[in-house]
Amino acid sequence: MSQVNVATENKSFVQHHFVDAEQQFDTAKLGMWIFLVTEILFFGGLFCAYVVFRSWYPQTFMAASGHLDKILGGADTVDLICSSVTMALAIHYIQVGKEKLTFILLGITFLFGAAFIGSHLYEWLDEMSVGIYPGSAYAFKGISDPHAYVFFTLYYLMTGLHGIHVLVGMGLMAWLMVKTKRGRFSSEYYTPIEITGLYWHFVDLIWIFLLPLLYLVD
Amino acid sequence: MDSTETKNKIKLKVRHFPLDENPPSHYANNKKGIKSWLLTRDHKRIGIMYLCTITLVFLFAGIMALLIRLSLWNPANHIVAAKTYDILFTLHGTMMIFLFLVPGVPTTLGNFFLPMMIGAKDVAFPRLNLASYYIYVAGAIFTIFAIINGGVDTGWTFYTPYSIHSTTNVLPMTIGIFIIGFSSILTGLNFIVTMHKLRAPGLSWGKLPLFTWSIYATSIIQVLATPVLAITVSLLIMERVLHIGIFNPALGGDPILYQHFFWFYSHPAVYIMIVPGFGIISELIGTFSKKRVFGYWFIAISSLAIAFLGFLVWGHHMFVSGQSALASTVFSLITFLIGIPTGIKIFNWLATMYKGSITLKTPMLYALSFIFLFTIGGITGIMLGALSVDVHLHATYYVVAHFHYVMFGGMLIAFIGGLHYWWPKMTGKMYSETMGRISWFLVFVGFNVTFFPQFILGAKGMPRRYYNYLPQFETLHRTSTVGSWILGLGFLLMAVYLIHSLVKGKKAPSNPWNARTLEWMTSSPPIGENFNYTPVVTHGPYDFHRPVSEFLLGLAGSDGHGGNGDLHPEGGTPVTVEESNN
Amino acid sequence: MSEQHHHIVPVKTLITIGAILVFLTILTVFFGYLHLPSPYNAIVAIGIAIIKSSLVVMFFMNLYWEHRRFNIMVFLAGLVFLSIFIGLTMLDTMYRSHIVPGF
Asked: pLDDT value at position B112?
């Protein structure tokens, strides 16, 4: 007695409980969209804390935010936008069967991510060198508002959490590059690239909001 | 490739697939060896593993409860030290809520039966399902470590600022909760996608069993609320480790903000805990009244309404915390609204039983107990939701009684009912009906003796989480403690006869309760693939007037012989069927 | 085959959207230097952010061409619930008589 539903396509990547590749792809996409909603709520907690404290201490936030480098923030944003473009291009090229270009574009996306992380590390180290630390370790005398550390605590938390997500994204890029090189993807099956793309664009999305909230308050 | 998604009904060739009562192998023995269990992708095996794990958790947390009640035997408690008492109730609450009730029904009965009820071969992401289980175990290990290392004394709510500078093992406990949160999120994600994508042909949303609707609503809550718990717990960890000052008033933070964060998850969490129970009760009442569940769409939509409204009321836990009066008023008002969809369910169940053909088997006894006990719990919840009343009853035993009536008298009773209902299907064995009824009686009586006095205690002013009390409360406390012993006995008996059934129980038929939902249309226990054909659904889940044979329809050729060609319609597309001969 | 059901975004579209996003970024930083009076600084900055994020969601994450309306609803639901979270919390934080004692 066959256990196989006769309608299951005979494709090695289609799992046994799916009827066809299309159903599997759609399912994966829906799964990723739901996961991104959980991320919205996860980051959302920090956004809520930000909104609450900013509504209580608007002057503090303006004074503290002025200390951050807007140009650097803008450059970081442009970096992530470019990485989103290369990610979307990587998907485009696998859809038309050009795996080699996909590999290169995934690599460029990875490098954009690395540049972002590097830029942040630089910014953090720069701040810490003058005594700007989160919470009770704050020791910077350069801002007259004594409660400025509230802003910087949120700054470190939000950019830190975002940075972790960028690192995870970079890990996913590397994994995708390995699998692309090994020929695991084609125009017929590129689901992991598609859903990693969704994740990466979402990470960009969060930063698009972090820029005005952290760097452009004044 | 032609997609067959059309707006009109499509015609399918179907045939009757006779049920094999005794297949040569089933899900539990088709692959042997411990690795076949630990690395399984079968949702049924994963459900069983979860069941075993959470039973152990329940046992441990239950013993904590017995110790709590024991230590309250004397007004001037000399049985345990004050700090020990704090640790006992913290562990009891944390384990019962995060490790038992929240995963509870979805991961066990949900995992086992959701795919079967929708005619699928597995959940959407089987490997993710297994990962969810291991993530749960990892989180549980952190929790166990925290317990062995001396426990936590903050209460399961971990309110700041005490949780920031408590010297107990807050850190491993909160890390454990963070990890378990992921398990909950991934399970919810899996189930939502499964229900959207893997329904059998003909199974429109209006033909789904109400248990699946409740799992759907629960999964939505899990996906939306749990991430906020994750960030709350992360920030608490940051507070303890890095002293960041978001919730610590000494550093300019706001402890009430912590409560907002915490309860934004934890109130919807109580609906995560109870809504699957509602689904089980719908199934039990329908089957044991042999009658279509009254007001199907009202019950289905009310689950979604409860899921939504549950997100708007969290502030009713914070009426006396220092929250603004405006917020308190708004939260109180919305809290009253939640009673409406819940009340609708209760009345629909009663209407289902009216003029039904009722059999009082053990699952039905639990279902009836649920209606009685949950109504008490629910109404006292509305009473607590009244701002003016809550000011007096907050943090008294009234609250403790309320939530035990809804969580234990509601959720746990429903879980046990469901366990007994589906026990023959999962294990292939029947338990002793007599023992089931005796145990039910002990549990029901024991529960009321334990918790009803607590309403009175609370109304008279006995605060919760206190390890000693004024002498005038002694009688009520001792009554409650005796009740806990009756409860313990009831559960002990339950464990005995259930385990006995595994070894010596009568072999179960495929459909011992004569139900009509798809999981009963397979052998007991089911085969690994659930169905070796693609089921086609043409009737509703409570069409008891239709013969069982009409529920054994499948796509002709889906077992490998004959065929419908390339036709594989989108799950849930309306279908018309044509009996085929092959 | 599968790709007939998957919309392929043209390269030109992607580059164009990317360029618009870069331009909007430069614009928002420029406005940052103008130090507009509150609340206009916040309105402009968040407004531009909303436009940018809509472009990313619609054209990079393909919601513009998404034939599964449910995916769109899922995303919007996330935003709705985040608004509920922040909104109802602020119903408390904005209306307290005393914000954080001792700060």
From this structure: 96
Contact status of C92 with chain B (Cβ, < 8 Å): yes
Structurally, how many domains does chain B consist of? 1
Predicted complex: ipTM over 0.85 = yes
Query: Which residue segment(s) compose the domain that B126 sits in?
Result: 11-19+26-507
Q: Which chains touch A (3 or more CB pairs under 8 A)?
A: B, C
* CA B388 – CA B372 distance, rounded (Å): 26
Peptide bond into C39 cis (omega under 30): yes
- Minimal C-alpha gap between A183 and chain C (Å): 18
Mean pLDDT confidence for B280-299: 96
Q: What is the mean pLDDT of residues B303-331?
A: 93
Domain containing A163: what range?
Answer: 40-215
Q: Are B51 and B100 in contact (CB under 8 A)?
A: no
- The CATH number that applies at residue A119 is 1.20.120.80
**Of chain A residues 121-150, which have a CB less than 8 A from chain C?**
147
**Is residue A45 within 8 angstroms of chain B, CB to CB?**
yes
At C102, the pLDDT band (50, 70, 90 cuts) reads low
- What local confidence, expressed as pLDDT, does residue C6 receive? 77
Per-residue pLDDT band for B510 (boundaries 50, 70, 90) equals very high
Q: How far is B334 from chain C (nearest CA, A)?
A: 12
* Domain presence at residue B572: no
Give pLDDT, residue B570. 61
> From the candidates B25, B242, B265, which should be mutated to test the interface with A, based on the most A CB atoms within 10 A?
B242
Structural domain includes residue B552: no
Please indicate, yes or no, if residue B512 is contained in any of the structural domains.
no
Distance CA A122, CA A126 (A): 6
Structure tokens at B218: 């629960």
Q: Alpha-carbon distance B196 to B198, whole Å?
A: 6
Mind listing the pLDDT tens digit for each residue in C36-62?
A: 887 888 899 999 999 999 999 999 998
Q: pLDDT tens for residues B135-187?
A: 999 999 999 899 888 888 898 999 989 999 888 899 999 999 999 999 999 99
C-chain residues near B1 (CB < 8 A): 1-2, 4
**Interface-testing mutation among A40, A81, A105, A213, with chain C (most C C-beta atoms within 10 A):** A81
The pLDDT confidence band at residue B569, using thresholds 50, 70 and 90, is low
Residue B108 belongs to a domain: yes
Interchain proximity A85–C15, CB inside 8 Å? yes
How many Cβ atoms sit within 10 Å of the Cβ of residue B505?
A: 19
B242 near C CB under 8 A: no
How many domains, chain A? Answer: 1
**pLDDT at A9 (0 to 100):** 47
Give domain status of residue A120, yes or no: yes
Please tell me if residue A18 touches chain C, with a CB cutoff of 8 Å: no
Whether the per-residue pLDDT at A182 is higher than 80: the answer is yes
pLDDT tier for residue A142 given thresholds of 50, 70 and 90: confident
Q: Which of B270, B268, B263, B264 lies closest to B158, judged by CA?
A: B263
CA dist B545 and A5 (Å) reads 30
Q: Cβ of B503 under 8 Å from any chain A Cβ?
A: no
Residue type, B240: R
Cβ B46 vs Cβ B451: under 8 Å: no
The CB density around residue A156, as the number of other CB atoms within 10 Å, is: 21
In a domain, A134, yes or no: yes
Across the interface, whether the CB atoms of A198 and C18 are under 8 A apart is answered no
